[in-house]
Amino acid sequence: MSENNLEYIAKIQELEKSLSAITKENRELLTRNLELIEQNRELGEKTEKLSSKINFESADKKSLRYKMVTVFFADIKGFSKLSSEDNAELLIDELDSFFLILDEIIEKHNIKKISSIGDTLMCAGGIPKKNRTNPIEMILAAIEVQDKLIEFQKELFGEKHKIWEISMGIHTGPVVAAEIGKKKISYELKGETVNIASRIESACEPGKIIISEMTRELVSEYFRCNYIGKIPVKYVGDINLYQVKGFTPTYSIDNNGLLPNKKFTIKFQLIKFDDLEEFMLDKLERELPKYLYYHNLKHTIDVGIQVEILGRGENITDEEMLLLKTAALFHDSGQSIQTNGHELIGTKIASDILPKFGYSSEQITVINEIIMATKLPPEPKTLLQNIICDADLDYLGRSDFIPVSNMLYKELHEQNLIGSINDWNKLQVKFLSIHQYFTETGNKLREVNKQTQIERLKSEITE
To answer: Which of 284, 251, 156, 271 is nearest to 148 (CA)?
Structure first.
């Protein structure tokens, strides 16, 4: 075989080997490619599941809009001074106990802690339950925090030495609050109000309570607020700032304006009453039985209006008015459980709810005595008890006596407590004939028309 042929065969064999190696490599690449495709498919499925879970959790997160929330930022300052102290670590441990005191103050004033990062605290009033009093409660809390920090350091260092100061910035406005967590719910706040409150605190001098003009408008009747200047806020412009110096002379027990007097306490309770009233009327609307055509929500509202009219006529004090209106709100609440003995049940409901709205034990005792005075036959012993008894049966001497008494008849008849309408008219004549209004105002307003109703009923009775 010629030399050229041998070279040709060698090249062919070499090419076959190369082709075989390439083919093997292609198979390996194809196999690897198929593996990558499968892995990519599995990764896609996992991503889709994770995305669905995230979307579900995001949809499950409950966000609420609040029109009026007071946001509070506070920052403890003075840690740079610790370098000159011999027992710096011990003092930091001591400061932890002050944060516990701070938490108690926040809870006491119906305020929600939102976050605590290092030595900066963020709180909000008016969430999760909306209320009208959160600007006032936030200022009360800020004043108390300021006082407690002073007392705390006096106990540690004596009168002439202190290390820490606290700066506080407060603003009131709308926010969006998102619930976070399932077992222990916390809140994430968003909105311009949060940014402004944070900006105010960052511009605040240590030891001062600084509030925005919006907050000042809501609290200036009760607190002395001194104008201190403006600060620029991004996307908002310049805002006016005020320093809270204490209570106004009208509502202060001392010349320095650092302690509230009883007049402030009652005024504040009267404001909180609006939230209590809203809460109780909603509760009664949901819980009172449908067969109560007379002892229903409308009757509770009516008695509340009448105690105020009669109370003004009898020249009662603001605190007495508060106690009366509160008793009117609860006097038929026991009907949500049972008719018989509902007055006593109402006192138990009041005793459970009222402490949450700042009522003292002494006030609750008086309120419960007023409620019990509405039990038939009425035997009131005090002016406030006289007033609620007259308010409770005010309709007896009003022009709407007929439709109201018809509703009472329907209620009693449906419970098989009264027979025919003729029996009902006889019972009404008997009741009206022995009934008396206990207050001078009640007699002046209703007694004449009550006598007219007696005569009308007598004419309708058949033997």
So the answer is: 156
Same domain, 419 and 441: yes
- Of the candidates 143, 174, 213, which has an alpha carbon nearest to the alpha carbon of residue 71? 174
What does the DSSP assignment read for 377-397?
SP---SHHHHHHHHHHTGGGG
The CB-based long-range contact list for 54-61 (8 Å cut-off, 24+ gap) reads 61/178, 61/179, 61/180
224, β-bridge pairs: 246
Kind plus residue range of the DSSP H or E element containing 35: helix 3-60
In the numeric block, which tokens belong to residue 295? Answer: 């002892």
Question: In the listed set 260, 291, 317, which residue is the last one of a domain according to the structure?
Answer: 260
Q: Which residues contact 5 (CB under 8 A, 6 or more apart)?
A: none
70 shares a domain with 43: no
Contact between residue 303 and residue 281 where contact means Cβ atoms under 8 Å apart = no
Beta strand 223-233 pairing with 186-190: unpaired
User: pLDDT digits over 379-406, tens only?
Assistant: 999 999 999 999 999 999 998 999 999 9
Domain that holds residue 280: 266-460
What tens digit of pLDDT does each residue of 64-98 get? Answer: 899 999 999 998 886 655 555 556 666 666 777 88
Same domain (yes/no): 14, 137: no
What is the four-CA torsion angle of 322, 128, 346, 326, rounded to 10 degrees? 10
Q: CA angle, 250 as apex, 246 and 255 as ends, to 5°?
A: 55
Domain end among 260, 287, 307: 260
Look up residue 312 and give its two tokens: 């003004």
Q: Report d(CA 23, CA 18) in Å as an integer.
A: 9
Residue 254 CA: distances (Å) to CA of 207, 260, 261, 265, 318: 21, 8, 8, 15, 22
In this model, does residue 272 exceed pLDDT 70? yes
**Which residues are paired to 74 by β-bridges?**
121, 168
**CA dist 191 → 85, 123, 197, 376 (Å):** 41, 14, 11, 54
DSSP 204: P
Q: Are 221 and 322 part of one and the same domain?
A: no
Q: Among candidates 248, 114, 117, which has minimal Cα distance to 181?
A: 114
- State the CB neighbour count (10 A cutoff) for residue 363: 18
Q: How far apart are CA 119 and CA 80, in angstroms?
A: 13
Question: Closest by alpha carbon to 193, among 178, 168, 176?
Answer: 176
